[in-house]
Design brief:
heterotrimer; A alpha+beta (about 180); B alpha/beta (about 400); C alpha/beta (about 400); B: about 400 residues; 9-stranded mixed sheet; two-stranded antiparallel ribbon; C: about 400 residues; alpha/beta; Peroxisomal Thiolase, Chain A, domain 1; about 35% helix; about 20% strand; globular
Chain lengths: ~180, ~400, ~400
């Protein structure tokens, strides 16, 4: 006697058997708190801010009020230059809902330059202040060939800012 | 008199069960859990009455569409009127659930524990299950960018490729190996005896460098294990498989602040498990491994994290056939997530079940060629953060 | 059939104990808009580690357990956001999707396995961030048999149960009115945002929201973060002279089908308590327990739980309550904190809130209790209880 292991359904049969469908309404207002509240506020002013742990010499972007490394409470803030280096970049051909988009977009992780006066603070491949964002001024080939790795970029700010990470339109490759 | 707290209560896996893994199943989450749990109990020659506690593993509640999913699953998982607990570390849950099961027994509190993992991703039908991954990002600094889950994998894959100069062709070999291995797995969703590197490389590009056939599918499925104390194991089976090492680590939430080319969190988890199991040279001492492969490059990435290959070296081992079933270090003889399917938590537990099957000689056509004594199962999860590792032995 | 799970051998007197060496909290307000949930947890963690004698989580703590649920957080895989604020980045950290007391039970088992010496347990809640609470609770009901009913106010389930309970046991609204004693007792509790100096007449004159429940019968939600540090006996000795011992833990789920659970006598609480008492070597809780902090997020539930936890003979909870047996000076003080009715319910952190108060009491100077029992449920539509027995 064979064991029952479940009944697979085709997409068509799945649609036919589903009797209960619900779209949950799960909505939240996410409290930004001290660190991200200030971060968003500064973005509205066209600046990137981070917090600093002088004890273990790390600059945190996105900022937080606790040092992930040594657990000290952080109250020192610093403006970080809106320029950096591309750590990794990819070409997206799909949207959040997995639909194909017409023209691929470049997204990646940008390691931000350490601010003036913090040049000797910890930054290497295992720790750096950095953010994910869109990258512009790069071609599909720049990404596929990986020439884009290590390229220098600078934030392209929108003229109308609302206090969001989208106040930066993208990080633009510096030619 | 001080008790020696290092004295281990040996914990054994004495039974396993799996449903089919498919894109859509008729069975409800509870039914899927029950099928796997019943099978595991039957495999162990035990009944629900023998079960002292239940540990449930299931990843985002949003897939099944039920909040407090552990409560909901307790029925199908045998947890009625028993101590039932749900644990959750994202994708790493499947290997973490038996780790939690391990301390349920090793603590001395319970003799027989049922470990059940379930996921029904098809329930998140509209617009597409993948949409659920929209909510795993930081709601304040990441979600506003409208990210897709595949972005983060693509970014990590590209960084890994760039750092060690790895070609897509070599990475695709993993997909080929695993989908071919999956032909012999009774639960397999995407077995493909004819898949080639060329087919992988000509599949739809989703987020370069990730293409469709680089990725494991969306799935429904469940898996279960029965864990017992040594006393019970010796009573119910002639070949218990011992859990000799467990390890788990969660790296910082801020994945944009660290090196993605090497999974340090997997290394830490591995070190923890190796230390417990008394393993000094994993490459030599691990005979067979199930390494988490939601994407093909991840198998390579995790092999290096686990110390089964030097940094940047895993592609070469794959190319040389070392990781085939008849190789010196078989990796993912089950067919992995790429071949068998990825009902998140159940997928990880499927891998632990595979090591149990391999070490107890019950893997049938999937049984690796070399004699095996020590096996390893590993899973990954969260935002490139979680590593969970189990080391098992049959002696 | 209730399954009795434990082996006898663990009660050997040579088994090392597990103790609570540090506690910390933050919030306990209907809204804490200044701090994000992570920042709240950081503050609670700092306090707990200082309370434990100045622990450095980067060196002294072996693992971290977080009790949280995705849909309370509004984040899928909320586990991702657990480590840093606890000092757990790149350390063994995981999430128990359950009440904080289940997280504590898990930590307890980890230490008893011999592989971990010091484990931190956290749970936090920020319901003030949730905009569609009713819809989310609806999502926890069975998607086929119950959720489609689209119960507008989930408290209706509690009201249904209260009506059945009162019908079966003969409890009256006047009996429920006694619950105001919890709100009055809470006045002495600095964490009790909902303490009220009211009498039973105020209660009986109050409007009903869902018959038979009045507004005062239902505990509101609050934001809070709580961190508890557990240690093996040996490790505890390095950090404190006065650990509070975890003498027993128990937890149980009764059913997934809420409609079928026992609405008169919560079996899940009885099962969980039986396990915890057995571990603690307690045969008669009415004799051995001097303090109880139990779930009273709905007034009538306190009566149910008193009996299910064996703190009164079955059917006598109301009478003993009227006689003052459960008052702070009484035979067995129950919820001197006011419980959830006084403090509010911090979602999955509620169990730890009860434990927090009990630990503070046991450490106290004024004739503290020797042994306390802590109990938490998880609210409608769950049928899960967790129980912890603490001793000095």
């Amino acid at each position: 006697m064979s064991k029952y292991l479940g009944t697979p359904l085709s997409e068509k049969d799945f649609e036919a058997v589903v009797k209960e469908a619900a779209k949950p309404s799960a909505k939240y207002r996410y409290t930004t708190g001290i660190a991200l509240g200030r971060f968003l506020d500064e973005l509205r002013r066209g600046r990137i801010i981070g917090t600093v742990c002088s004890h273990c010499r790390r600059v945190y972007v996105p900022p937080r009020i606790y040092c992930s490394h040594c657990f000290r409470e952080l109250s020192e803030w610093v403006y970080v230059r809106d320029e950096g280096t591309i750590q990794t970049a990819v070409l997206t051909y799909i949207s959040t809902t997995r639909e194909r988009i017409e023209k691929p977009l470049v997204v990646g992780v940008i390691k931000l330059d350490l601010p003036e006066g913090y040049g000797d603070y910890a930054v290497d491949e295992t720790f750096y202040p950095g953010v994910m964002h869109y990258i512009c001024g790069a071609t599909e080939d720049d990404v596929k060939s990986r020439r884009i790795f290590g390229k220098r970029v600078k934030a392209k700010w929108r003229s109308e800012k609302t206090g969001s990470v989208r106040d930066i339109e993208c990080f633009e490759v510096i030619p | 008199m001080k008790m020696n707290t290092e004295l281990k209560q040996r914990v054994a896996v004495v039974g396993a069960g799996l449903t089919l893994f498919r894109r859509r199943m008729l069975d409800t989450p509870k039914e899927l859990a029950w099928i796997a749990a019943k099978q595991a109990l039957d495999d162990a020659g035990l009944t629900l009455k023998d079960v002292d506690a239940v540990v449930i593993g299931s990843a985002p509640d949003a897939f099944d569409g039920v909040h407090l999913k552990g409560e909901y699953l307790s029925e199908g998982a045998g947890g009625i009127n028993k101590p039932t607990m749900r644990v959750y570390v994202g994708g790493a849950t499947g290997v973490f659930t038996p780790i939690a099961g391990w301390w349920h027994v090793a603590s001395g509190l319970f003799d027989t524990v049922l470990v059940v993992a379930e996921e029904k991703m098809s329930s998140a039908a509209k617009p597409h299950p993948q949409y659920v991954f929209r909510y795993i990002w930081d709601p304040i600094v990441e979600k506003p960018l409208d990210p897709n889950l595949i972005w983060i994998f693509a970014m990590e894959m590209h960084r890994y490729m760039n750092k060690y100069n790895i070609k897509k062709e070599d990475i695709a070999l993993v997909s080929v190996k695993n989908k071919r291995n999956a032909v012999d797995h009774p639960s397999a969703q995407l077995p493909d005896p004819n898949i080639t590197v060329e087919k992988v490389l000509s599949s739809e590009t989703l987020v370069w460098p990730v293409q469709q056939l680089d990725i494991s599918p969306v799935s429904d499925g469940a898996a279960a294990l029965v864990l017992t104390s040594e006393k019970v194991a010796r009573r119910v089976t002639d070949n218990p498989v011992w859990i000799d090492g467990v390890g788990f680590t969660l790296d910082t939430t801020h994945w944009t602040n660290r090196e993605l080319a090497f999974p340090a969190y997997v290394r830490r988890a591995g070190e923890m498990a190796y230390k417990m199991a008394g393993i000094n040279n994993p490459r030599r001492e691990i005979d067979v491994a199930e390494v988490y492969d939601p994407f093909d490059y991840k198998e390579l990435h995790h092999m290096e994290g686990l110390g089964l290959a030097g940094r940047g070296e895993a592609p070469r081992l794959t190319r040389e056939g070392v990781t085939q079933r008849d190789g010196d270090l078989p990796i993912n003889p089950s067919g992995g997530l790429l071949g068998v399917g990825n009902p998140i938590a159940a997928a990880g537990l499927m891998k632990v079940a595979e090591i149990y099957y391999q070490l107890s000689g019950k893997a049938g056509k999937r049984q690796v060629k070399k004699p095996v004594y020590t096996g390893l199962a590993q899973a990954w999860g969260d935002l490139m953060q979680a590593g969970t590792v189990i080391v098992m032995r049959n002696t | 059939m209730i399954h009795n799970a434990l082996k006898q051998s663990i009660f050997s007197e040579y088994m090392p104990r597990v103790g609570i060496i540090g506690v910390g909290w933050f919030g306990f307000q209907p809204e804490t808009s200044t701090y994000s949930f992570r920042e709240m947890t950081y503050k609670a963690a700092n306090r707990a580690y200082m309370d434990a004698g100045g622990l450095d989580p980067r060196k002294d703590i072996d693992a971290f357990v977080s009790s949280q649920e995705d849909f309370w957080e509004g984040i899928s895989i909320a586990d991702e956001f657990a480590p840093d604020q606890l000092g757990g980045a790149m350390r063994p950290v995981y999430t128990v999707a359950g009440d904080g007391l289940q997280g504590l039970a898990s930590a307890y088992m980890m230490i008893r396995s011999g592989q971990f010496d010091v484990v931190a347990v956290e749970s936090h809640a920020k319901p003030s961030d949730i905009e569609t609470l009713g819809d989310i609770i609806n999502m926890s009901m069975d998607p086929i048999t119950m959720a489609p009913l689209r119960v507008r106010n989930p408290h209706a389930l509690a009201a249904l149960e209260a009506r059945l309970y009162m019908h079966r046991t003969g409890a009256t609204e006047e009996d429920l009115a006694h619950i105001v004693r919890a709100k009055r007792n809470a006045i002495k509790n600095p964490r009790a945002s909902f303490a009220m100096n009211i009498g039973e007449d105020d209660y009986l004159g109050g409007e009903k929201i869902l018959d038979p429940l009045r507004r005062l019968d239902v505990a509101p939600l609050i934001d809070a973060a709580i961190v508890i540090v557990l240690a093996s006996e040996e490790a505890a000795g390095k950090f404190t002279d006065t650990p509070i011992w975890v003498r027993g833990v128990g937890w149980a789920t009764e059913t997934s089908q809420w409609e079928l659970h026992d609405m008169e006598y919560p079996l899940h609480a009885a099962t969980a308590a039986r396990m915890a008492y057995k571990m603690a070597g307690i045969d008669d809780p009415q004799k051995s327990i001097q303090l109880a902090e139990i779930d009273n997020r709905y007034s009538f539930k306190e009566l149910q739980f008193i009996e299910a936890l064996g703190l009164s003979p079955r059917g006598e909870a109301v009478k003993l309550m009227r006689d003052g047996a459960f008052e702070p000076g009484g035979r067995l003080p129950i919820n001197p904190s006011g419980g959830a009715l006084g403090e509010g319910v911090p979602l999955e952190a509620h169990g730890l809130a009860r434990l927090l108060y009990a630990v503070e009491s046991l450490r106290g100077d004024q004739a503290p209790a020797e042994t306390a029992v802590i109990h938490g449920w998880r609210g409608v539509p769950t049928t899960t209880s967790s129980v912890v027995v603490l001793g000095r």
